[in-house]
Inverse folding.
């Protein structure tokens, strides 16, 4: 089980658990942390966040809403993000 | 000239073809009718033509193009003139460019979407056939809609795209949404003279985007049943079954595995070219879309586009 900490915005300092099987989005919402979302399929971009620290795996994500330039900066779609270590996540950076 | 009969197909971009095919066959319940590199062709059980949906492997979701079927091959050259007169650039797609299809013309809408018109397409028929048919065949899977019904797209200039469809392509407008001062058109529903309340619709938003692709089911109960099937398959349901005042249809909205929004749409009124266009004012738009809640139920409904 990994720990995910939100570093800014409405949910600043909130901490939740994610086992790495479940997406960051699903784990957060189950624990009452409302990351906005739409499709839950990596297509609409509504759940975009930025990982400030930690490792994760990324499922298939649209290049239109998450281009390569953003991927290298660790922007990611919460619905397609699977932690591989504890994470620090910025929600505000995702509101591009 | 005979003109456009209906929306005949949509080509959707998907990010994982196998996952998409599994969803569109087992959850939506279409049948695979053919494939080629990076593309799978499907049809609904009640459609006669070779295909109505093409899934295309791509690195982002969305609508590659959609197409209307015209009654006569000669109509294509007539439409070619009208489309060019309107100022849209156009090209011919040669016969056999896609499975089962004849020649087509392709052009870009004022909203940036790609549209084709075609007449010739192979007919595969349906399992119930044309002779003393049963009302439906055995072995249906999933939601099992009758047909691809309509697409709803977003664009900056809804007024001009409406003028293009009504003046150059001969479609009719069933309903429109106007800004409260009456100056701007922010929603538009259009149909070929086939009785349907819409074959294509637009709401004001970014150009080139897909809001949803809709499949037709018969009754209100089928919408409820569709929602049951979606939950059973853990599909993301955005808007649970409700009523549109616009078109009077019943609806459930959900997302395919790549994030393209789908709708199972039932009933809706029958309309004819001599009927007046219904007008909604923008302040009542949510009464029109979600008649019971009369408000934006989910922020994603206006924001999640592909
Ligand atoms: S919710 Fe649509 S990309 Fe994550
Ligand atoms: Fe619709």
């Amino acid at each position: 089980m990994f720990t995910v900490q939100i570093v800014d915005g409405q949910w600043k300092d909130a901490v939740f658990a994610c086992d790495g099987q479940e997406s960051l989005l699903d784990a957060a919402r189950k624990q009452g942390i409302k990351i906005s979302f739409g499709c839950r399929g990596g297509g609409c971009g509504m759940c975009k966040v930025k990982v400030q620290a930690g490792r994760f795996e990324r499922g298939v994500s649209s290049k239109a809403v998450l281009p390569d330039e953003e991927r290298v900066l660790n922007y990611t779609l919460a619905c397609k993000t699977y932690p591989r270590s504890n994470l620090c996540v910025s929600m505000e950076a995702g509101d591009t | 000239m005979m003109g456009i009969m209906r929306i005949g197909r949509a080509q959707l971009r998907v990010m994982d073809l196998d996952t998409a095919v599994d969803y569109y066959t087992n959850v939506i319940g279409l049948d695979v009718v053919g494939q080629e590199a990076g593309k799978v062709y499907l049809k609904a059980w009640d459609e006669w033509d070779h295909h109505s949906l093409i899934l295309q492997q791509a690195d982002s979701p969305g609508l590659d193009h959609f197409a209307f079927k015209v009654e006569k091959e000669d109509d294509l050259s007539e439409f070619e003139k009208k489309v060019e007169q309107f100022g849209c650039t156009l090209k011919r797609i040669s016969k056999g460019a896609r499975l089962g299809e004849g020649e087509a013309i392709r052009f870009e809408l004022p909203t940036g979407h790609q549209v084709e018109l075609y007449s010739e397409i192979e007919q595969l028929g349906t399992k119930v056939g044309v002779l003393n048919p049963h009302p439906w065949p055995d072995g249906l899977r999933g939601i099992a809609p009758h047909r691809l019904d309509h697409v709803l797209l977003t664009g900056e200039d809804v007024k001009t795209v409406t003028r293009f469809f009504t003046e150059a392509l001969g479609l009719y407008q069933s309903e429109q949404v106007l800004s409260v001062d009456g100056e701007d058109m922010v929603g538009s529903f259009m149909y070929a003279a086939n009785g349907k309340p819409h074959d294509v619709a637009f709401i004001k938003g970014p150009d080139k985007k897909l809001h949803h692709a809709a499949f037709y089911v018969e009754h209100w109960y089928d919408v409820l049943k569709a929602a049951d099937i979606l939950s059973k398959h853990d599909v993301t349901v955005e808007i649970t079954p409700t009523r549109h005042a616009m078109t009077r249809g019943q609806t459930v909205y959900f997302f395919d595995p790549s994030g393209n929004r789908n709708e199972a749409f039932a009933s809706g009124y029958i309309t004819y070219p001599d009927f007046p266009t219904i007008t909604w004012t923008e302040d009542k738009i949510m009464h029109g879309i979600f008649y019971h809640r009369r408000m934006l139920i989910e922020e994603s409904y206006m924001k999640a586009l592909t």
About this structure: The pocket of FE2/S2 (inorganic) cluster (ligand 1) is lined by residues A 37-47, 77, 79; B 259, 304 (CB under 6 Å). The CA atoms of residues 12 and 55 of chain B lie 5 Å apart. The longest helix of chain B spans residues 220-232. The longest strand of chain B covers residues 4-14.
